[in-house]
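Here comes my example:
=====
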Amino acid sequence: SLECLWCVWWWGCELYLGVPCGGVVSWLSIITACSLTNCYVNFFKHFICFSSDRSGVFMRYKNGVLRSLIGSSWVIETRTDKLSYKSGDQAGTINYYDINDVSIKTGMVSDSVVVKSQNGRLNITDFSAVDATRLNSDIIKCTKKAVANEVSKHFEALNEVSARVEEFLGENRYIAQSDIRAWLKAFPEIGKHLSHPYFEISFLPKDIRERMSLLDEIQTKNSETLKQRNIEFVQKAMRRHQKLFNKLEKYPLTEEQKRAAIIDEDRNLLIAAAGSGKSSTIVAKVVYLIESGLAQPNEILVLAYNKDAQVEIQNRLAKAQSKLKQAKNSVKAKTFHSYGLEVISAATGNKPSIAKIAAAKKTVLNRMFTELIYDLGAKNPTFYASWVQYLTTARGPLPEVENIKTKSDYDNFLKQMGAQWRGPSGNRSLRLVTINNKEVKSLEELRIFNWLVINGVEFEYEQPYEVQTNDANYSQYHPDFFYPEVNLYHEHFALDPLGNAPTFMQDYLEGVQWKRQLHEEHQTELIETWSADFLNGDIFESLKSKLQDFGVKFKPMQKNELDALIEASFEPSRDVDVFVTFLRHFKSNDFEIEEIDGILKIASDRYRSSLFIELFKAIYKEYQRQLHHAEEIDFEDQINIASKYLENEVVTHSWKYVLVDEFQDISQ
């Protein structure tokens, strides 16, 4: 009824939009609407609905039916005073004030929001990137409000903090945001609130903010006040440590290197060209930290990507530290993997063995994975069949149509896939070589051609149509495929699911219509396949069904024939390396094998993706089985396992500073 809609509208505005729709006005609306029809039952129903708004729900998040099917189903509510969550048997609430970190973890298909609190860690999984970002922002905003609410209760203590800000800014040190939080933490009564990671003055009441304007300003991103006082400090520190910086390395440090060594933000990124002195700056940074008393040698960790870089930095550190009187112990440079081993050993009491395959060179690695793949094929006929089909019909990717704007773009892509110009001058075209050394015009035709070959289908490619068609407007028609035993023609059209052609193919649809009319006019049998069939993954199931309907016979090649065909064109650096590279990225990003099926939901070439995923799963499981059987781990395991021990605080450390050489080379 109309009054039902009226009442639900008012209630919905308050509940979901956070708009207070007028308390008394809402009640009057309900009473008036219900009284007009004497619908007292409706009145009491609305009373219950309206009261439910008092639960304090601000925003409600669900991760959707599709994502919950491939993962976990979540319902998250950001209430006024706490975060509420429910997923299967897991349910509970977290007080906002107890939250100390909220972050997004990017997955292969879905993202997660990780909430760390005093009571533990909550992983809210299987959200889209957009929804995860919104949820992450909402939780942080609610947490900031809760912290500000606690702070505003301590009116007198805030006056003392405000009065001492200028004294703090006058201290002889570089001041970063963490230094401000550490200073605030020291205040009795209110310190723990002010030093909360999500304390933000802008969330305090206006009258309090006005009295704390200076503290508010220096806690603002890119604060001019803080920036200027830090610039002055850096200039003084460079003059004070001039002699030290001049004698550290063979050549005196430049002003930029000195500034980089002294600047002490919470996170510092130094970008410079090769050979311009980044390693020298790392050495200078270490020496400055020790000399200025900011850290002891055992509180500084220097990480390098490989052993050679680690040895070089270690030698330079030792030489530089020998010039310091108070540095009794040398700072140790480590590789990521050696430090990972230390962490794992500390957590488990055992130093794991590293597999030989982990350190193998690329050519050796490809050979080892080739053997692994061949062993799988020998043991598993299904894997062998999929491997053959992948190599013959899905070895190369199809072009992503949205990235192909012109015919030139398309030609360049074909050339990247190995196409060569063929034909007489004036009528040349790019051609791709099939598995039996014939030539075709497109990657999709290449896939179909090879599939027909390995399935023993009798066919002809681009033979002249049985009726002469060349005239003033058209040349002789050459259908893509012809099956002579049943007198059947087959055209493969570059059409998407809606029947549209790529934008760079002008007048293509006119040609499609002309071919269809030609077959209809001369009563010749025609079947069609489309690019859309590759995109949705059912191309060969559909084609096989159509051919069988017309009586086409299939005589699949024997294994020895297939082996000979594959052997002639097999290249480990191309055919195996893609699986090795994918495995490395898959493991270094710490994905789970269960996540991989989700790729198909976003894949543009579902046919190739489904084959690749099927093969990768088997290769990955066999690779992991061999590692487990040998009681070994690889470098990716080494990093992932160590990271988990550190994140979950199974292993603690004493590092105040972590300096990373060649940071761009690290994994996620």
